[in-house]
Fold:
Amino acid sequence: MVTLVAVSDAPKKGGTSSSEKISASETVPGPILLLGAPGSGKGTQGKSMAASWGIPQISTGDILRENRARGTALGKAAEKLMGEGKLAPDDLVNKMVAERLAQPDTARGFVLDGYPRTLPQAEWLERSLAQRADAQRVDGQAETTVPALAAIAVNIRVSYTELLRRITGRRNCPTCHRIYNVYLKPPQVDTVCDVDGTPLVARADDVETVFEERMRVYDAQTAPVVEHYRAGDRFIEVDGERPADEVAAAITAGIERFRTEERLRNLF
Ligand SMILES: [Zn+2]
Structure:
């Protein structure tokens, strides 16, 4: 975690009572939207951010699975559509996200992983977060817990060629479940497992045709979401081809910078 001297000094200069209740050494991350193409490392980065800040990582895939497992009305509706080979529509996904964001563990922030995936979802989320901020002000929660924070969008940028290698090069060992990549992390001998010599296999959806279709959907639906946030004033873009720990450090530094600036603005 990055230490920011300016923050720890700021409250002494004349903070108000509400600002003094905010710990000077601890950044409240608030809502974070993690964007990036399939294979960009969103899941890994989301997990690491959630762990380092103690906030939930929320993916629509997990919410969907959870709703189906609990047999909720939303889960049943989603199951019916998916049984027909359809994607869950925006309004259904939005409702499930709204329910999840209403849980108390999201108070200090959350990482949304793979959502919003479309422009209508992004617009809905912005309205929803604005209502949440209004509700906090009415409750007076902003005084006692954290000021309502606007979402920071983080885009993990990875080139098409690298995404293709990451996804179509993936092989796993059916015996010990180790994961290899024929381009990036090849086994020592041919295409057999280093540990037990079992021939490695590829998953059916890691083939190039499936990757191309996923990228086509991403370019059509989600790339405009990235451009939408890029045009806003809380957007961070990181080079996702660097090692995972460097990507994590760059994301943390970017979020700390935005939240520190906001905190300083609120003090004066
Ligand atoms: Zn093995």
In short: Residues 173, 175-176, 178, 193, 195-196, 198 surround zinc ion (CB under 6 Å). Strands lie at 30-36, 57-59, 109-113, 152-157, 170-172, 179-181, 235-239. Residues 67-101 form one domain.
